[in-house]
Amino acid sequence: MFTAATWPIAGNMLAFGGTTSEGVPVWEASTTYWSDCLRQMRELGFDHIDPTDAWLPLQKLSPSRLEDFKKVLADEGLKISSISMTRNSVVDREHGERNLADAHRLIDIAPEFGATIVNTGFMQALTPVQQQALWFWLEEGHHDDPALRPLAVERIRELGDHAQANGIELSLEMYEDTFLGTADDAVAFHADVDHPAVGLNPDLGNFIRLHRPMPAYEEMFEKVLPHANFWHIKNYTRDEDPATGGYSSAPMPLKYGQINYRKIIRRALELGYTGPFCCEHYGSDSIGVCAENREYIAQILTSAENSPLLAAARPATS
């Protein structure tokens, strides 16, 4: 189990995008390009990253290129604690079987890098309207088809079997209008999968930013944290005007947004959370904000570790 000093708090590589400035897909880019991106993360103080297939889809690399990437990581002094799949649903009507094969490939690759988590979900490609919006979450996106839910449960259970056999875990990312689109939906889906190697990614930042009615974040976290095994963590401001029905939201560093993460992380630890963290942020200097968030999380973990109340509440195995 992790201590405050060893707990993986990774930076998501999403901010670098999936292509170079010349339009070359990152998985086809030179090792020099990989090194430049990774070095920026290391210079900001990160010792773990999540490569995310939105930056570098590891499943597309040949065995020799995978070895190249391992060397670049080592040279830059970085490790991988998690690998996230982004907008590649295993029940996508057109690409679901391909995405399922990619998930299996990532589950095989993850242990080679020391990653303990493969994260996936049911969000799908942004619509053209979302791509043109200032913030994509303000426009209507994909909605999961309830008829595909049994297939989704079946495929996630299949991936859970594979993850368990490889000594890692699968995490399911909560995202609006999918099978994991509310706290209740996520808990129900997790219960139907009913697999010891499958947990939830309580990425409630995905919900707090929406311009729609939303339960109190404390209520949502209380439902999902007992099932959490990984955490995409980010924050937003949120304002609601009951008189007009208007909403506003914007990305913010963890300690300034709507969610009080000092309170929520301590509650997660109290409930037995032991998974890695992965910092995300949209807009501005995303990786710079993620670095500040990493320091904030580390301080909370250190404070919690020194708390006699939390020490008494946490499971003996942690």
Largest beta-sheet details: 5 strands, parallel
Overall radius of gyration: 19 Å
Question: Reading side by side through the largest sheet, how are the strands ordered?
Answer: 3-2-1-11-8
Please report which band the strand proportion falls in: under 5%, 5-15%, 15-25%, 25-35%, 35-45% or over 45%: 5-15%
User: Which class best fits the helix and strand makeup?
Assistant: alpha/beta
The sequence of SSEs as H and E is EHEHEEHEHHEHEHHEEEHEHH
- Count of individual helical segments: 11
Just name the CATH architecture.
Answer: Alpha-Beta Barrel
Q: Structurally, how many domains make up the residues? A: 1
- Assign a percent range to the helix content: 25-40%
Write the CATH fold name: TIM Barrel
Q: Low-confidence segments, ≥5 residues, pLDDT <50?
A: none
How many DSSP-defined strands? 11
What's the CATH superfamily, by name? Divalent-metal-dependent TIM barrel enzymes
- Outline: globular
The overall pLDDT average reads 96
Verbal overview:
The chain has one domain (about 10-315): TIM Barrel, CATH 3.20.20.150. It has helices spanning about 30-45, 65-75, 95-115, 130, 150-165, 185-195, 205-210, 215-225, 260-270, 285-305, 310-315, and strands at about 10, 50, 80, 80-85, 115-120, 170-175, 200, 230-235, 235-240, 245-250, 275-280. About 40% of the residues lie in helices and about 15% in strands. It is globular, with a radius of gyration of 19 Å. Strand 1, helix 1 (about 30-45) and strand 2 (about 50) form a beta-alpha-beta unit. It is α/β, with parallel strands linked by helices. It has a 5-stranded parallel β-sheet with strand order 3-2-1-11-8, covered by helices on one side. It has a 4-stranded parallel β-sheet with strand order 4-5-6-7, with helices on one face.
